[in-house]
């Protein structure tokens, strides 16, 4: 038997080397090596090793800490291996062979396909599609069965208030029962199925029960990730690591205590069965009672519970795949919302607080997300509507994700500087607007992918801005003709009609707003949305100021001249925070005639404007003389995470679904809060 030494490693390097850290290929075959000969301390010095040949030895298993961070190719043919799970320590492994290991079976093949997310070749065969099925469909089916087994047979075995001993007892019974009774796939894979079922059940219990015991152990987040991507010009892998994952919800362990409100009072309680904190709110003028359902930390860098620095920026509800229902805004959205911040995009079920999917790009910071529905040709030549999510941020690249397939199918390198916001045309499903720090707004046709996800994107238009565009909105009555943008230097309008021929266009109008006793165009507009077909809501850098103004009456004063300064016809001002802090954006719920805006203290200001819109709609509608006060202010609850209060909380964005059932609040401290209207 040959003992492994530094000299032996240097001699068996291909080519021979003088230093361990320079070795990239190493041949240790036919040395009669046993598991004990693989010294982790010595192997830890092979930091750049990419190819390792251990064939024709006597290995029965792998040590758990070989520390080969760059290993891509591994040959273990003709050994005595009994278990493959230790191979998960080589996450970048792409090619693996272990033929003629008599104790390994088909179940072990499935285990390595699940554990090694980059694996392409197993024993010389391309397993990419099968591995994706194992990580996606198999995992999803088993998760559903495990959850159903708990709900049917074990959920009621725990009392409302339970002890650690009771949890331990139920957990033991559940793990035994679920491995015996949950069956899926052929009997030849029964060992793999039991292995996965146990893993899924333990993860399920960790977030369903462990958090309620205020455990210091972080619940393990399931990351079945797909790292395939394509660009608009080719289907080569992108330079970053893209990951689409099915995950369990990462819920803050919170305690909510009553807090004082300016216009309403709340009584709160915490610690119920589903880690929800509930508050009943009463209002002097009107009852808009809402309860906080969930507080999630699902955008944490490295899944760290200590991450209170990741900023959350954008969220939008997924449209319902029903062409008839989509015309009615009240039923045009599901309870699923896409959120973005830091390196990830998450899909969240607002009712349950479950993070349904998670998409990561390690080198990205996402600023904006938007949905569209494309009619795609599926494999049997039939056409079917599918929701596509676009996500963009600091790198100036738009990622296109087919959510139902758990697949990022392409990207568009839209700008060389960060993209602040994106939005799709409501009338042209493939038309996407991207607003960038390069002071340009681009219109793209993203195309429709075929059944193999081949697609072609093209740039249709470039709108030149004089300052960075922060928010964009298409005019509801003419979304194919005019676009509004709130920018660092004011509020602008462009003609976007495609039959004009001019591909690069300057702005057509800049709007001026009141500033003390005069009018000015020079101010930052960091909030912009339409309340209805005509009323625009915009927030400027002027403290405490949100304006409502008429698009048609303002733009009509421009006449036929090009690029004129026009005065916004102000309909009303909304009373808001006196902070001068920027980028706390607003949103609207047109169907319910609501405006929402967060502030620098974690509160959400809500304005029900249904009593005003009829008067504003008349041709002679006059400006409301007094500032309109908020209908209600939802105060941020006294929330404790692991016994401590988060730092200062800014509400970067707040969005409701079209029916105003759920209110999603995105903060500066990596917490997504979901409220539900009672």
TrEMBL record:
Domain Leucine-rich repeat and WD repeat-containing protein 1 LRR: from-to ranges: 7-200
Pfam families: LRR_LRWD1, WD_LRWD1
SMART domains named in the record: WD40
Family annotation (PANTHER family): LEUCINE-RICH REPEAT AND WD REPEAT-CONTAINING PROTEIN 1, OPTICIN
Record-annotated Leucine-rich repeat and WD repeat-containing protein 1 WD domain positions: 289-677
Cell location: Chromosome, Centromere, Kinetochore; Chromosome, Telomere; Cytoplasm, Cytoskeleton, Microtubule organizing center, Centrosome; Nucleus
Bias type Acidic residues, positions: 215-231
PROSITE patterns associated with the record: LRR (PS51450), WD_REPEATS_1 (PS00678), WD_REPEATS_2 (PS50082), WD_REPEATS_REGION (PS50294)
Organism: Sapayoa aenigma (broad-billed sapayoa)
WD repeats: from-to residues: 412-446
Alphabetical list of InterPro entries matching this protein: Leu-rich_rpt (IPR001611), LRR_dom_sf (IPR032675), LRR_LRWD1_dom (IPR056363), LRWD1 (IPR052489), WD40/YVTN_repeat-like_dom_sf (IPR015943), WD40_repeat_CS (IPR019775), WD40_repeat_dom_sf (IPR036322), WD40_rpt (IPR001680)
Entry GO CC: centrosome; chromosome, telomeric region; kinetochore; nuclear origin of replication recognition complex
Similarity field: Belongs to the LRWD1 family.
Protein name: Leucine-rich repeat and WD repeat-containing protein 1
This protein's UniProt keywords: Centromere, Chromatin regulator, Chromosome, Cytoplasm, Cytoskeleton, DNA replication, Kinetochore, Leucine-rich repeat, Nucleus, Repeat, Telomere, WD repeat
GO terms under biological process: chromatin organization; DNA replication; establishment of protein localization to chromatin
Recorded name of the encoding gene: Lrwd1
Molecular function GO labels: chromatin binding
Region (Disordered): 215-238, 258-288
Composition bias, Basic residues: 258-276
